[in-house]
Amino acid sequence: MLSSDLRPGAVDALLFDLGRVVIDIDFVQVVSRWASHAGRAPEDLAARFVRDEIYHGHERGTVSDAAFFANLRRQLGIDITDDQFLEGWNAIFVGPMPGIGPLLVRAADRLPLYAFSNTNQPHIEHFSSRYADLLGHFREIFLSSSIGLRKPDAAAYQHVVQAIGIRAERILFFDDLAENIEGARASGLQAVLVRSTEDIAAALQALGI
Protein backbone atom coordinates (compact mmCIF):
# COMPACT_ATOMS: atom_id res chain seq x y z
CA MET A 1 0.00 0.00 0.00
CA LEU A 2 1.15 3.50 -0.85
CA SER A 3 0.13 6.58 1.10
CA SER A 4 -1.86 7.60 -2.01
CA ASP A 5 -4.19 4.64 -1.32
CA LEU A 6 -5.08 6.05 2.11
CA ARG A 7 -7.72 8.65 2.90
CA PRO A 8 -9.19 10.33 5.99
CA GLY A 9 -11.38 7.95 7.95
CA ALA A 10 -9.85 4.84 6.38
CA VAL A 11 -8.47 3.38 9.63
CA ASP A 12 -9.40 3.19 13.32
CA ALA A 13 -5.99 2.28 14.78
CA LEU A 14 -2.29 2.46 13.93
CA LEU A 15 0.09 -0.44 14.61
CA PHE A 16 3.86 0.10 14.54
CA ASP A 17 6.84 -2.20 14.41
CA LEU A 18 9.59 -0.91 16.73
CA GLY A 19 13.01 -1.61 15.16
CA ARG A 20 13.83 0.84 12.34
CA VAL A 21 10.30 2.23 12.57
CA VAL A 22 10.21 3.77 16.06
CA ILE A 23 13.68 2.96 17.43
CA ASP A 24 16.72 2.99 15.18
CA ILE A 25 18.92 -0.11 15.33
CA ASP A 26 22.36 -0.95 13.97
CA PHE A 27 23.59 -4.56 14.00
CA VAL A 28 27.11 -3.37 13.14
CA GLN A 29 27.32 -2.08 16.72
CA VAL A 30 26.54 -5.58 18.00
CA VAL A 31 29.18 -7.48 16.05
CA SER A 32 31.73 -4.74 16.71
CA ARG A 33 31.34 -5.20 20.47
CA TRP A 34 31.51 -8.99 20.21
CA ALA A 35 34.54 -8.79 17.92
CA SER A 36 36.30 -6.49 20.36
CA HIS A 37 35.73 -8.94 23.22
CA ALA A 38 36.82 -11.91 21.08
CA GLY A 39 39.76 -10.31 19.29
CA ARG A 40 38.19 -10.94 15.89
CA ALA A 41 37.20 -8.88 12.87
CA PRO A 42 33.57 -7.61 12.98
CA GLU A 43 32.97 -8.54 9.34
CA ASP A 44 33.97 -12.14 10.09
CA LEU A 45 31.35 -12.42 12.83
CA ALA A 46 28.71 -10.69 10.71
CA ALA A 47 29.27 -13.24 7.93
CA ARG A 48 28.78 -16.13 10.37
CA PHE A 49 25.68 -14.78 12.08
CA VAL A 50 22.48 -16.60 11.03
CA ARG A 51 18.92 -15.97 12.17
CA ASP A 52 18.21 -19.66 12.68
CA GLU A 53 15.55 -21.54 14.64
CA ILE A 54 17.37 -20.87 17.92
CA TYR A 55 17.20 -17.15 17.11
CA HIS A 56 13.50 -17.42 16.27
CA GLY A 57 12.88 -19.44 19.42
CA HIS A 58 14.57 -16.75 21.48
CA GLU A 59 12.16 -14.23 19.93
CA ARG A 60 9.21 -16.49 20.77
CA GLY A 61 10.37 -16.85 24.35
CA THR A 62 10.95 -20.61 24.05
CA VAL A 63 14.79 -20.45 24.07
CA SER A 64 16.59 -19.09 27.14
CA ASP A 65 19.21 -16.36 26.99
CA ALA A 66 21.87 -18.88 28.07
CA ALA A 67 20.91 -21.30 25.28
CA PHE A 68 20.83 -18.45 22.74
CA PHE A 69 24.28 -17.24 23.72
CA ALA A 70 25.62 -20.81 23.72
CA ASN A 71 24.35 -21.19 20.16
CA LEU A 72 26.04 -17.92 19.19
CA ARG A 73 29.27 -19.16 20.73
CA ARG A 74 29.17 -22.19 18.41
CA GLN A 75 27.86 -20.31 15.40
CA LEU A 76 30.40 -17.49 15.56
CA GLY A 77 33.30 -19.59 16.80
CA ILE A 78 34.12 -17.26 19.69
CA ASP A 79 34.44 -17.88 23.43
CA ILE A 80 33.14 -14.82 25.25
CA THR A 81 30.99 -14.71 28.37
CA ASP A 82 27.21 -14.39 28.52
CA ASP A 83 27.66 -10.91 29.99
CA GLN A 84 29.83 -9.90 27.04
CA PHE A 85 27.28 -11.30 24.61
CA LEU A 86 24.54 -9.37 26.40
CA GLU A 87 26.50 -6.12 26.39
CA GLY A 88 27.00 -6.38 22.63
CA TRP A 89 23.44 -7.60 22.02
CA ASN A 90 21.96 -4.49 23.63
CA ALA A 91 24.31 -2.17 21.74
CA ILE A 92 21.99 -2.56 18.73
CA PHE A 93 19.79 0.35 19.84
CA VAL A 94 20.93 3.68 18.41
CA GLY A 95 18.14 6.06 19.43
CA PRO A 96 14.70 7.18 18.26
CA MET A 97 14.15 7.16 14.52
CA PRO A 98 14.65 10.72 13.23
CA GLY A 99 11.46 12.73 13.55
CA ILE A 100 9.32 9.88 14.92
CA GLY A 101 8.55 11.50 18.27
CA PRO A 102 6.45 14.42 16.94
CA LEU A 103 4.66 12.09 14.51
CA LEU A 104 3.61 9.79 17.34
CA VAL A 105 2.41 12.74 19.41
CA ARG A 106 0.32 13.98 16.50
CA ALA A 107 -1.04 10.55 15.61
CA ALA A 108 -1.92 9.64 19.22
CA ASP A 109 -4.11 12.73 19.39
CA ARG A 110 -6.30 11.29 16.65
CA LEU A 111 -6.10 7.49 16.78
CA PRO A 112 -5.09 4.76 19.25
CA LEU A 113 -1.51 3.62 18.72
CA TYR A 114 -0.20 0.08 19.24
CA ALA A 115 3.17 -1.59 18.63
CA PHE A 116 4.10 -5.11 17.57
CA SER A 117 7.73 -6.21 17.57
CA ASN A 118 9.68 -9.41 17.09
CA THR A 119 12.05 -9.16 20.02
CA ASN A 120 13.56 -10.99 22.98
CA GLN A 121 13.58 -10.52 26.73
CA PRO A 122 17.04 -8.88 27.06
CA HIS A 123 16.11 -6.31 24.44
CA ILE A 124 12.73 -5.69 26.07
CA GLU A 125 14.38 -5.03 29.43
CA HIS A 126 16.84 -2.66 27.76
CA PHE A 127 14.58 -0.58 25.53
CA SER A 128 11.56 -0.47 27.87
CA SER A 129 13.41 1.77 30.31
CA ARG A 130 15.69 3.59 27.90
CA TYR A 131 12.85 4.65 25.58
CA ALA A 132 10.01 4.79 28.10
CA ASP A 133 8.86 8.26 27.02
CA LEU A 134 8.74 7.29 23.34
CA LEU A 135 6.97 4.02 24.04
CA GLY A 136 4.48 5.78 26.29
CA HIS A 137 2.51 6.85 23.20
CA PHE A 138 1.34 3.25 22.67
CA ARG A 139 -1.78 1.93 24.38
CA GLU A 140 -0.36 -1.57 24.24
CA ILE A 141 2.88 -3.12 22.97
CA PHE A 142 2.78 -6.69 21.67
CA LEU A 143 6.16 -8.42 21.95
CA SER A 144 6.86 -11.77 20.31
CA SER A 145 8.70 -13.28 23.26
CA SER A 146 5.81 -12.33 25.55
CA ILE A 147 2.96 -13.59 23.36
CA GLY A 148 4.88 -16.60 21.98
CA LEU A 149 4.19 -15.61 18.39
CA ARG A 150 6.28 -13.73 15.84
CA LYS A 151 5.80 -11.99 12.51
CA PRO A 152 5.14 -12.91 9.74
CA ASP A 153 3.13 -15.89 11.06
CA ALA A 154 -0.61 -15.44 10.52
CA ALA A 155 -1.35 -16.49 14.11
CA ALA A 156 0.72 -13.54 15.36
CA TYR A 157 -1.34 -10.97 13.47
CA GLN A 158 -4.57 -12.69 14.46
CA HIS A 159 -3.56 -12.52 18.12
CA VAL A 160 -2.77 -8.81 17.90
CA VAL A 161 -5.93 -7.93 15.97
CA GLN A 162 -8.09 -9.80 18.47
CA ALA A 163 -6.37 -8.10 21.40
CA ILE A 164 -6.81 -4.64 19.84
CA GLY A 165 -10.48 -5.38 19.23
CA ILE A 166 -10.71 -3.61 15.88
CA ARG A 167 -11.34 -5.30 12.54
CA ALA A 168 -8.08 -6.09 10.71
CA GLU A 169 -9.02 -4.03 7.66
CA ARG A 170 -9.40 -0.95 9.89
CA ILE A 171 -5.84 -1.24 11.28
CA LEU A 172 -2.85 0.32 9.48
CA PHE A 173 0.45 -1.44 10.13
CA PHE A 174 3.93 0.05 9.66
CA ASP A 175 6.98 -2.24 9.31
CA ASP A 176 10.40 -2.04 7.67
CA LEU A 177 10.48 -5.65 6.38
CA ALA A 178 8.63 -6.68 3.23
CA GLU A 179 7.89 -10.18 4.57
CA ASN A 180 6.11 -8.68 7.58
CA ILE A 181 4.13 -6.32 5.39
CA GLU A 182 3.07 -9.24 3.19
CA GLY A 183 2.07 -11.26 6.26
CA ALA A 184 0.02 -8.38 7.61
CA ARG A 185 -1.80 -7.87 4.31
CA ALA A 186 -2.49 -11.60 4.04
CA SER A 187 -4.13 -11.32 7.47
CA GLY A 188 -6.33 -8.47 6.29
CA LEU A 189 -4.50 -5.45 7.68
CA GLN A 190 -3.64 -2.35 5.70
CA ALA A 191 0.14 -1.94 5.68
CA VAL A 192 2.90 0.51 4.73
CA LEU A 193 6.51 -0.50 4.14
CA VAL A 194 8.76 1.91 6.05
CA ARG A 195 12.06 2.86 4.47
CA SER A 196 12.33 6.10 6.44
CA THR A 197 10.22 8.18 8.78
CA GLU A 198 9.02 10.06 5.72
CA ASP A 199 6.91 7.05 4.73
CA ILE A 200 5.08 7.29 8.05
CA ALA A 201 4.66 11.05 7.69
CA ALA A 202 3.22 10.63 4.19
CA ALA A 203 0.74 7.99 5.39
CA LEU A 204 -0.41 10.17 8.28
CA GLN A 205 -0.83 13.13 5.95
CA ALA A 206 -2.97 11.01 3.62
CA LEU A 207 -5.12 10.08 6.61
CA GLY A 208 -5.56 13.74 7.42
CA ILE A 209 -3.41 13.53 10.57
Short description:
With 209 residues, this protein is α/β, with parallel strands linked by helices. The chain contains twelve helices and seven strands. Helix 11 (178-186) links the parallel strand 6 and strand 7.
Task: Walk me through the structure.
- This is HAD family phosphatase.
- InterPro entries: HAD-like_sf (IPR036412), HAD-SF_hydro_IA (IPR006439), HAD_sf (IPR023214), PGP-like_dom2 (IPR023198).
- This protein is α/β, with parallel strands linked by helices and 209 residues long.
- The chain folds into two domains: 3-22 and 97-206, HAD superfamily/HAD-like (Rossmann fold, 3-Layer(aba) Sandwich); 27-92, Putative phosphatase, domain 2 (DNA polymerase, domain 1, Orthogonal Bundle).
- It is built from twelve helices and seven strands.
- The strands form two sheets. It has a five-stranded parallel β-sheet, sandwiched between helices. It has a two-stranded antiparallel sheet with strand order 2-3.
- Strand 6 (171-175), helix 11 (178-186) and strand 7 form a beta-alpha-beta unit.
- Helix 1 packs across helix 2 (42-48) and helix 1 (27-38) runs antiparallel to helix 5 (82-89).
- The model has no long low-confidence stretch (mean pLDDT 97).
